[in-house]
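Duplicate of earlier report; Malonyl CoA-acyl carrier protein transacylase input re-posted below.
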Amino acid sequence: MTKIAFIFPGQGSQVVGMGQEFIENAAESKAFYERANQSLGFELSKLMLEGPAEELTLTYHAQPALLTTGVMIAEKLLAAGIKPNCAAGHSLGEYGALVIAGVLSFEDAVSVVHKRGLYMNEAVPAGQGAMAAILGMEFEALHEVTEKVSAAGDPVQVANVNCPGQIVISGTKEGVEKASLAAKEAGAKRAIPLVVSGPFHSELMRPSSEKLGATLADISLSAPQIPVIGNVMAKELEDVPAIQHELVEQVYSAVQWEASVREMIARGVDVFIECGPGKVLSGLVKKIDRSVATYCVYDEASLEAVLEAAKEWTINA
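Output:
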């Protein structure tokens, strides 16, 4: 039996024109963008389709934009008969997984992630924080580097454990720059600055988590209809209290993406479908375990590729 996971990307995957081909060809897809506009009270769709990229990259725009595109794509897969056995998302992407699992409505999710982005920006305004991907260094060695830099007065910490050989650090702009240099001096192959507007998944984000907790308390949440694997502990989020705790804690905690993927594989998942622009998560999954199948759905051709491949799968009708 083929077991499928829907996975949803986080910030950094946004691109001007995201989802454009779908909304031009299907009224139900365009409706997702219109629903997002209505929920937020401004024309998010115009920013998604026309830019400018600098505005789309701002966290309070990128988060609802990625959620909208990801859920729209997942709904197209569901309508075509492709149903996930479980779901997960990278950071912001976790909200897309929760919408598909029936935990909260699309409208509530769009509103919450927009506020999440605003809270994050208030905690550390754009330009004051940074993130970077460190390639070719083990966790323990990189953790030691970040501890030393932080102790010297420039906060930085491990933010995402993405796959073997790729770990992301987050903190103040100066902390990330110094840790990146120190990591390369300690043997890292590369240090790549990420196109994000804040130091996500670092202690600098803790003030935003408190505001997010208050917002989530006013949102109606339901138990998941399919397993959702959380970022913080890489375990199934089984009930509403666990989900609320997860969403608050993950704002300032490291995303355990490698462990999350391994958990899904341990549950029998052998097909991962990335719902959203880009191929970042699919690439990470392949680096974690090359034996599983990965697909990215971001336009009509990639959707057709999944539907064609599905003809060979043994799945529940």
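The mean pLDDT is 95.

Merging into the original ticket.
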